[in-house]
Automatic annotation (TrEMBL):
Transmembrane segments: 20-37, 49-69, 81-98, 110-130, 142-161, 182-204, 280-303
Organism the protein comes from: Gopherus agassizii
Major site of localization recorded for this protein: membrane
Keyword match Hydrolase: no
Keywords: Membrane, Sugar transport, Transmembrane, Transmembrane helix, Transport
Family: Belongs to the nucleotide-sugar transporter family. SLC35B subfamily.
Annotated PANTHER family: NUCLEOTIDE SUGAR TRANSPORTER SLC35B4 (PTHR10778:SF4), SOLUTE CARRIER FAMILY 35 MEMBER B (PTHR10778)
Name recorded for this polypeptide: Solute carrier family 35 member B4
GO cellular component, one term: endoplasmic reticulum membrane
Length: 317
């Protein structure tokens, strides 16, 4: 667990290193997919490339915008909670684009999530204001950057929801191909990182100047930031690969529930490990977000029959 949290913790010493982290993740998944999924480019994709180009343009934009939001006075807990509101964006765009209609319980869950995000956003705004300098002008400057961060998160949230709707439409037409989608979603955006090359190179130099670290078991010595980056890439690959496979192996209810629980666990670890300020209002907002998310997945309806069956089996015994 320490290794999973060390790179985010060390990133405070290297602000703005999100681009090199994202690039390393994309490059690793692209190389692995090129070898094992496309058989060195000899296997034709089941879904036409033009659809993947649209998909990855959205995916790349969301990833970069979310990274830059952390440099705009957005605290990590708020960042994670805000992104947990993806159900709101998905429902709104589903109504607008797909003309969907939902039950009262669905709208109630969305209301809970909305209130939770509003509470956390408001409390974080007060923290930003309290941390600003004594100068009113400087305080306004900090607060305006924070507002820009909120705008960036909102844009990324809506773009991510639009990408989900696009994926849903494509998968219905061509079928689900999790490994193929994983590869093309990470390989096609790689040229876009050329725009970020100066930033990536600068942080690569900084990583190389970090203190030396001897890797346990193999005796290899390398800068500690490169070690953290490698461990982050490996764990992120396992996580992302799992989510892509989960979408084809399980129902949407199970996928949403697992991802929600992962976000919740990540949030708790972030708060405890980084000692982020988290007030009772933040906890209340977090509770609203995750209760609303679980209501949206209708997990309660699924647990009811399961518990009833368990009681019947217990009585028989």
């Amino acid at each position: 667990m320490f290794l999973l949290l060390s790179l985010p913790h060390k990133s405070r010493e290297f602000p703005g290193c999100g681009n090199i982290v994202t690039f390393a993740q994309f490059l690793f998944i692209a190389v692995e997919g090129f070898i094992f999924e496309t058989n060195f480019g000899r296997k034709r994709p089941a879904i036409p490339i033009r659809y993947y180009l649209i998909m990855v343009a959205m995916f790349f934009t969301v990833s970069v915008v979310n990274n830059y939001a952390l440099n705009l006075n957005i605290a990590m807990p708020l960042h994670m909670i805000f992104r947990s509101g993806s159900l709101i964006a998905s429902m709104v765009l589903g109504i607008i684009i797909l003309k969907k209609r939902y039950s009262v319980s669905k709208y109630t869950s969305i209301a809970l999530v909305s209130v939770g995000i509003f509470i956390c956003t408001l409390m974080s705004a007060k923290q930003v204001a309290s941390k600003s300098s004594l100068s009113e002008e400087d305080g306004l400057h900090v607060f305006m950057w924070w507002l820009l961060g909120i705008a960036a998160l909102t844009f990324a949230l809506l773009m991510s929801a639009r990408m989900g709707i696009f994926q849903e439409t494509i998968y219905k037409q061509f079928g689900k191909h999790s490994k193929e989608a994983l590869f093309y979603n990470h390989a096609l955006p790689l040229p876009g990182f050329l725009l970020l090359a100066p930033n990536i190179y600068a942080h690569a130099v900084l990583f190389s100047q970090s203190e030396p670290f001897q890797v346990p078991g193999i005796g290899l010595t390398l800068p500690i930031m490169w070690f953290y980056l490698v461990m982050n890439v490996i764990t992120q690959y396992v996580c992302i690969r799992g989510v892509f496979i989960l979408t084809t192996e399980c129902t949407s209810l199970t996928v949403t529930l697992v991802v929600t629980l992962r976000k919740f666990v990540s949030l708790i670890f972030s708060i405890l490990y980084f000692k982020n300020p988290f007030t009772a209002w933040h906890w209340l907002g977090t509770l609203f977000v995750f209760v609303g998310t679980l209501m949206y997945t209708e997990v309660w309806n699924s647990l009811g029959p399961l518990l009833a069956r368990h009681r019947k089996e217990a009585k028989k015994e």
